């Protein structure tokens, strides 16, 4: 319902913009709040306004994600500066993630190895990220071994991201039967469109046009039924599905 001629989402955005100015937040928040008042307000509330979210690891990751969009090299610069000041495992882990996000997977692997050689040696979540760095660095065999060791040592640990990395590693190793089994399970429960887009790409690379066609049709129909915010979050993978669909239709 409009309030004094303005939509409620605009009123909320103005409230958060005022808070941003008074609390000395970076000016890019003003741009986000007024360009995307609904989503921007939600992100600001979770990462800045709510103290618990602001100081949580998840909240910090969202902030870093926004910063990567506005200044792609900022997170990498800041992570390196923090490690130079104090070579703590936490700072090294931040640099490892930043390097991976910047497409420098081989360097990321080195940092993850250093982290996993210390007190975080048995940390399952970090091990999954390490496996992803290995995969992106072209070391699919090592990524697979890393995840299989994790599964054997911590059978109760569950990770959809780890499952996807494992399936991708199998595909990269051309272990088609096993990779297909893993991907078929993944598309049944994985949140978002990434698993579907990656599987469709693998199927096309294998020349399995029939299964690729069925998966693309199903995935694009699913995308149409998603709420707007979900499509926004999956924008890169939706674009990849559409690209693969175009390639298949043109072939």
Automatic annotation (TrEMBL):
UniProt entry tagged with the keyword Transmembrane helix: yes
UniProt keyword annotations, A-Z: Membrane, Transmembrane, Transmembrane helix
TM ranges: 30-50
Gene3D superfamilies per record: Tetratricopeptide repeat domain
InterPro entries: TPR-like_helical_dom_sf (IPR011990), UCP030959_TPR_rpt-cont (IPR014562)
Name of the featured protein: Cardiolipin synthase N-terminal domain-containing protein
Signal peptide residue numbers: none
């Amino acid at each position: 319902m409009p309030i004094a001629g303005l939509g409620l989402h605009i009123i909320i955005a103005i409230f958060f913009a005022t808070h941003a100015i008074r609390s000395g937040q970076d000016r890019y928040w003003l741009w986000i709040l007024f360009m995307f008042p609904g989503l921007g307000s939600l992100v600001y509330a979770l990462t800045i306004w709510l103290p618990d979210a602001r100081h949580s690891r998840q909240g910090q990751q969202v902030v870093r994600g926004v910063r990567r969009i506005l200044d792609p090299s900022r997170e990498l610069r800041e992570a390196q500066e923090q490690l130079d000041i104090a070579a703590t495992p936490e700072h090294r882990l931040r640099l490892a993630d930043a390097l991976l996000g910047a497409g420098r997977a081989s360097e990321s692997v080195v940092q993850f190895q250093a982290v996993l050689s210390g007190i975080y040696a048995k940390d399952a979540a970090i091990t999954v990220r390490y496996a992803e760095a290995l995969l992106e660095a072209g070391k699919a065999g090592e990524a697979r071994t890393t995840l299989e060791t994790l599964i054997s040592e911590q059978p109760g640990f569950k990770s959809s991201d780890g499952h996807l990395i494992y399936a991708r590693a199998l595909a990269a190793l051309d272990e088609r039967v096993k990779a297909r089994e893993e991907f078929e399970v993944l598309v049944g429960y994985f949140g978002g469109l990434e698993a579907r887009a990656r599987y469709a790409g693998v199927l096309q690379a294998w020349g399995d046009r029939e299964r690729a066609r069925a998966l693309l049709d199903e995935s694009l129909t699913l995308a149409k039924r998603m709420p707007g915010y979900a499509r926004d979050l999956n924008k890169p993978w939706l674009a990849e599905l559409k690209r693969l669909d175009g390639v298949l239709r043109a072939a």
